[in-house]
Amino acid sequence: MRNGEIKAIFDQQASSDDERWAKTAPIWEALHFLLEGVFAELPANARILSIGVGTGEEMSYLAKRFPQ
């Protein structure tokens, strides 16, 4: 596959990905709650690597919550 084809497939799937997973919102909210506790104990200059973040909704949330 070419990069353009891969991007087109991702864009097609990503457009409905967050909506498709909306039913699991309580699980994600609990995950965010737990991660906030873990991240609160990290040094301010800590770096996080997250692999396979899909549309990045949870990373966007956490980046806003922990901008440092």
- Share of residues in strands: under 5%
- Helix segment tally: 3
Shape: flat
What profile does the largest beta sheet have?
A: none
The helix/strand order is HHH
Q: Which structural class should the secondary elements be placed in?
A: mainly alpha
Number of strands: 0
How many individual domains?
A: 1
- Distance between the amino and carboxyl termini: 37 Å
Would you tell me the overall average pLDDT? 82
The value of Rg in angstroms is: 15 Å
Low-confidence runs of at least 5 consecutive residues: none
The percentage helix is 55-70%
Describe the structure.
This protein is mainly alpha-helical. It has one domain (3-65). Helices cover 63% and strands 0% of the residues. The protein is built from 3 helices and no strands. It has helices at 3-20, 25-40, 57-65.
Task: Chart the SSEs and their pairings.
Layout: H1 3-20, H2 25-40, H3 57-65
List the defining traits of the structure above.
single chain, 68 residues, mainly alpha
Briefly, what is this?
The chain is an all-alpha fold and 68 residues long. Helices cover 63% and strands 0% of the residues.
